[in-house]
Design a protein that fits this description.
The complex is a heterotrimer.
Chain A (H helix, E strand, L loop, with lengths): L38 H25 L3 H5 L11 H11 L2 H32 L5 H11 L5 H13 L6 H8 L3 H14 L2 H9 L4 H30 L2 H6 L7 H8 L7 H36 L1
Helix pairs in contact in A: 1-13, 3-13, 4-7, 4-8, 4-10, 4-12, 5-8, 8-10, 9-10, 10-13, 12-13
Chain B lengths: L33 H28 L1 E4 L2 E7 L3 H7 L2 H32 L6 H13 L2 H11 L6 H8 L11 H30 L2 H9 L4 H29 L3 H6 L16 H11 L3 H33 L1
Antiparallel strand pairs in B: 1-2
Chain C lengths: L3 E8 L9 E8 L4 E5 L6 H9 L6 E6 L2 E2 L10 E4 L11 H11 L4 H14 L15 H13 L5 E5 L7 H18 L2 E6 L2 H7 L2 E6 L2 E6 L1 H6 L4 H6 L6 E8 L2 E4 L2 E4 L2 H7 L5 E6 L4 E4 L5 E10 L4 E7 L12 E6 L10 E6 L5 E3 L6 E2 L1
Parallel strand pairs in C: 3-8, 3-9, 6-7, 7-8
Antiparallel strand pairs in C: 1-2, 1-4, 4-5, 9-10, 11-12, 11-14, 12-13, 14-20, 15-19, 16-17, 16-19, 17-18, 20-21
Classes of the chains: A mainly alpha, B mainly alpha, C alpha+beta.
């Protein structure tokens, strides 16, 4: 291949031709219809935001006072100095530190496993042709309707049989099955991964496995990140199954919180301090990544 | 020879050394057996932790099983189901579930629609508002219920303090039937309104601009535009949220469990807010009657199927009527 | 370099009763540039994808050289393809895009770098090697797609409408460059397009397909001068050839009250079954004659192009009853002396430039 160069095509500036890059979530510049928000809109939205935030703020307020102070009339509206005392008492009543570590482990494992499983299956459903794929996809979507309650009893018997009660894998494994995740990845890859890209991979001599790791995963990365965030959030907050699979000796945060609230003479300050500790990590994560989670949910809504 | 000309095209036509006979191959190159390998991890987990439990639950529901002695299960046929139908607790729980479901879903979706409309204006601090609305969604059921349990407290709760300040009587939120169901609905509404608003917002933004422009040129007011462009454009999304909320409402469990603050599973002293989900937990893990609990679980599933099927049918009739 | 042979190659899509490609027989010579052309849905892309191994061959065979590749996966066929949307890997740099196939084939790092650099030099992409596709213009992406094909030095290049995503001006420039590049590389090339101008300018030979059936495969000049049937006659050339059908009479075909002369034995064979004959003539083969001779037409629209003028005419109204289909005739004239709208003209066809077709079979009669 020794050829002299043909003169370059004169097309230096990027043009507006359709790009062979997967479509990104569109940011719309809407000029015509969208009117500027009036003062009333802002008032209503601020009100809604206050309602959304207030209960969490109240947690901080109530968790940082003594019980007597909260019961006063009018109640206090600013945080106080007793927070660490209350947290200390909450930790005496429930193993909250252990619960936090457990929840990080559980939610982390669930997130990694779910994203991997769902990306594999979502790719297969979106792009590979195999017998029965429609039926299997229908099955996946159908399971979204099945209530958790339907699986609880046998799952409990199963982990009892395996002697997994009170062990973290009992929470992780059953939670890896999320039909939503498979569906989400399928929808994303159907539109974001052009068939031509896979065909180019095959022409270049890549095996299906190679195509998956070298082409599909890089393209799927934005959706995988969104799915990871949503899965982590859900896993952190999951309540029903951990409540059954674990005991208060080795709990996740939610189970510990339930134990905290379960005393016969509720100690309000302790409950609120514990709730604050259990919720704070997810709130921090949410504050940092909230924008992306919002984007992910909205993107999933349009695709779904 | 498929040249449509009667002129011989000898030069361009191949004379293949072996002329292959007609054969009909199965698609080998594009059909990809790897598909099975890729869905396998999901379906292995699905089989172990979903499908097998569903079926096993069905089996259990036909037996008299004690949590402590599963091997001693006895075949009772449909007795668990007939017991359920004559069980006043079941009907009470079904009623409560329905009431709380309606009380929580209807205002929740209506408010979400309104919020989405507001969020769809061009806003300063757009991201802040969206994230703030979603904050309750990020809060766990346990945390939300514990906090609201405090807010709704009879003696020291902030809400009663507020009511008293403006001249109303204190309400025993937990003790009353309607009041407790309303309070639980408020928790659900609080957690989910922002989430649904974002979903509606996304759908609103997917409605093509020119529909609004056409409507505006036809002289439609903003309200008419909302009614005749936005709402029809959102119809599939609205149906989707209704279905999801319905499924969630039938399964409601954590809120009524933790609302009382004393960890009991009976849903209030007179079961005034015991839902189906809570009843099932009560039967299985408080009273150890797994057979009954399984029957309740299947009943919940059937209710979901019926309700979702009903919604789908309604949507289909509606779509047909409009055609 | 190698030859390519389609032998009775057929593709029927599942759930379709009509083949997308119907018993295609085509032999492409070593180093030849063959263009597959036709309207959308004619099976040209399917044919190319069968050769690529991206589409099943339901019956028949595809050979590259002497090797039957019908059942081989794409990677075993030693071919490279340029896709319509280029299909560049969005997360890889230009360099990685071009080197990906070599990397998979186990070519050493140094050798890969050398070949990528060489291709980049040919295509003037040296300054862009570390960019991602997103940061490139449409024309640059197109060249990367070409580069990805040529680094592999394959037996055959496959190109699936590689210019259709470029704007009109760039398309013309790139077209000549592809022609030159492929000529210098000397690699057998199969090129799919729906644009007959692209087909005529690029191809050593052009294969015209319609509804999955090969209509004619010939050098561009032959295709233009001796179309094998009415479809090819109408498809190749712009504006299209005038094709009219009329009753056969002594000495020719009756058209607009006058008789267009047709050679005797051609007329006899074409009109044998029906008594009618289909004739075709290109706009530039029409001559204007004085009143009393030729076919009378009325000018409807005059299209001035500067270098030419095209008259869109109708056979004069009082005589249209004996014209079966269709009655519009396009005439090329000198732009500066073009008649005006509403003028009545008389036309004949230049000696030896009349194409005669059998109205039933639609085939050419010589």
């Amino acid at each position: 291949m020794t050829v002299t160069a043909p003169p370059p095509v004169d097309d230096a500036g990027p043009d507006s031709r359709p790009a062979p890059v997967p479509p990104r979530p569109r940011r719309r510049h809407r000029v015509g219809r969208v009117t500027k928000a009036g003062p009333l809109t802002y008032v209503l939205l601020v009100l809604a935001a206050l309602v959304s935030v207030f209960p969490l703020y109240w947690t901080a307020v109530a968790g940082s006072h003594t019980n007597a102070e909260i019961a006063a009339t009018p109640p206090p509206f600013l945080p106080d100095a007793d927070l660490f005392t209350n947290i200390g008492r909450a930790m005496d009543e429930a193993p909250i530190a252990l619960a936090l570590v457990n929840t990080v482990v559980v939610a982390g494992c669930i997130t990694v496993g779910t994203v991997l499983c769902c990306t594999l299956a979502g790719f297969a459903f979106a792009k590979l042709r195999f017998r029965g794929n429609k039926v299997l996809l229908g099955l996946v979507i159908g399971t979204m309707m099945v209530p958790t309650q339907l699986a609880i009893i046998p799952l409990f018997l199963l982990i009892a049989e395996l002697e997994w009660v009170n062990q973290l894998q009992a929470v992780v494994l059953p939670t890896l099955v999320t039909a939503f995740g498979v569906f989400f990845m399928r929808q994303y890859l159907s539109s974001a991964l052009p068939d031509e890209l896979l065909e180019a991979g095959r022409m270049d001599g890549a095996s299906t496995t190679r195509i998956f790791w070298s082409i599909v995963v890089p393209v799927a990365r934005p959706a995988m990140a969104v799915l990871a965030m949503l899965t982590f959030l859900t896993a952190w907050n999951d309540f029903f199954w951990p409540l059954i699979a674990l005991t208060s000796d080795n709990p996740t945060v939610q189970v510990a919180l339930a134990g905290l609230g379960g005393g016969y003479v509720p100690d309000r300050a302790v409950i609120m301090a514990g709730t604050l500790i259990g919720t704070l990590p997810i709130l921090v994560v949410f504050t940092v990544l909230g924008r992306h989670i919002v984007g992910g949910i909205m993107q999933g809504a349009v695709k779904g | 020879m498929t040249i449509a000309s009667d002129e011989p095209q000898v030069a361009s036509i191949a004379a293949p050394s072996v002329l292959p006979g007609k054969r009909r191959r199965t698609s080998r190159l594009t059909r990809n057996r790897w598909g099975y390998a890729y869905v396998a991890p999901f379906f292995v987990l699905f089989a172990c932790f979903s499908l097998y439990p569903f079926l096993y639950t069905a089996w259990i529901s036909l037996h008299d099983v004690d949590l402590g002695d599963v091997d001693g299960a006895q075949w009772v046929g449909l007795a668990n189901y007939s017991d359920l139908l004559s069980n006043e607790f079941f009907w009470n729980a079904a009623r409560n579930t329905l009431t709380i479901g309606v009380l929580s879903t209807v205002p929740q979706l209506a408010m979400a629609l309104g919020l989405a409309h507001l969020l769809n204006y061009s806003l300063r601090g757009r991201t802040f508002f969206r994230v703030a609305m979603l904050l309750p969604y990020a809060t766990s059921i346990a945390a939300a219920t514990l906090v609201f349990g405090q807010l709704f407290g009879r003696d020291y709760g902030l809400i009663n303090a507020g009511l008293e300040a403006v001249g109303f009587d204190r309400v025993d939120w937990e003790g009353g039937s309607w009041s407790s169901q309303l309070a639980i609905s408020v928790i659900v509404i609080w957690r989910w309104t922002g989430y649904n608003a974002l979903i509606y917002l996304a759908a609103m933004q997917a409605i093509p601009e020119d529909l609004y422009e056409a409507a505006a040129l036809d002289g439609a007011s903003k309200w008419k535009q909302f009614l005749h462009v936005t709402v029809p454009g959102l119809r599939p999304t609205i149906l989707f949220t209704i279905v999801v909320s319905t499924i969630g409402a039938v399964q409601l469990f954590g809120e009524p469990l933790l609302f009382s603050g004393n960890g009991t599973t009976n849903g209030g002293s007179s079961n005034q807010y015991q839902t189906l989900g809570l009843l099932m937990y009560d039967q299985g893990w408080t009273n150890f009657h797994l057979g009954q609990a399984a029957a309740t679980a299947w009943a919940m599933f059937l209710i979901i199927l019926v309700v979702v099927g009903g919604w789908a049918l309604l949507a289909r009739c509606r779509a047909r009527a409009e055609r | 370099m190698s030859t390519v042979t389609f032998a009775q190659a057929t593709r029927v899509y599942p759930k379709s009763d009509r083949p997308a490609v119907d018993a295609l027989d085509l032999h492409i010579g070593d180093g030849e540039f063959l263009v597959l052309v036709g309207p959308s849905g004619c099976g040209k892309s399917t044919s190319l994808r069968m050769l690529a191994g991206l589409e099943e061959v339901d019956s028949g065979a595809v050979l590259i050289g002497d090797r039957d590749v019908t059942d081989l996966p794409p990677k075993s066929r030693d071919i490279a393809m340029v896709f319509q949307n280029y299909a560049l890997y969005p997360h890889m740099t230009v360099e990685a895009n071009m080197g990906f196939a070599l990397k998979l084939a186990g070519v050493g790092r140094a050798e890969t770098a050398r070949r990528v650099a060489e291709a980049a030099k040919i295509l003037d992409l040296e300054d862009y090697l570390h960019r991602r596709p997103k940061a490139l213009s449409g024309g640059q992406r197109q060249r990367v797609a070409m580069g990805r094909a040529i680094v592999r030095d394959p037996q055959v290049f496959l190109m699936d409408e590689p210019l259709s995503n470029l704007d009109a001006k760039l398309r013309v420039q790139t077209r000549t460059q592809i022609a030159r590049l492929v000529q210098r590389l000397g690699t057998t090339t199969v090129y799919v397009t729906h644009d007959q101008v692209e087909a005529m300018t690029l191809g050593d030979r052009v294969a015209v397909l319609r509804d999955g059936v090969l209509q004619q495969c010939d050098a561009p000049g032959v295709l233009y001068d001796r179309p094998a049937n009415v479809f090819v006659a109408g498809f190749i050339g712009s504006p299209a050839m005038n094709v009219v059908t009329g009753p056969a009479v002594e000495g020719g075909v009756r058209l607009g009250g006058a008789v267009l002369p047709v050679p005797r034995d051609q007329l006899a064979r074409a009109a044998a079954g029906t008594g009618r004959v289909t004739v075709g003539f290109r706009p530039e083969d029409v001559q204007l004659v004085g009143p009393g001779a030729g076919v009378p037409v009325v000018v409807n629209v005059v299209e001035q192009l500067g270098s030419d003028a095209f008259l869109y005419t109708k056979l004069a109204a009082e005589h249209t009853d004996d014209v079966l289909h269709p009655s519009d005739v396009v005439v090329r004239t000198e732009p500066r002396t073009a008649p005006a709208q509403g003028d009545q003209l008389h036309i004949t066809v230049r000696e030896g430039r009349l194409h005669v077709f059998d109205p039933t079979t639609q085939r050419r009669v010589d």
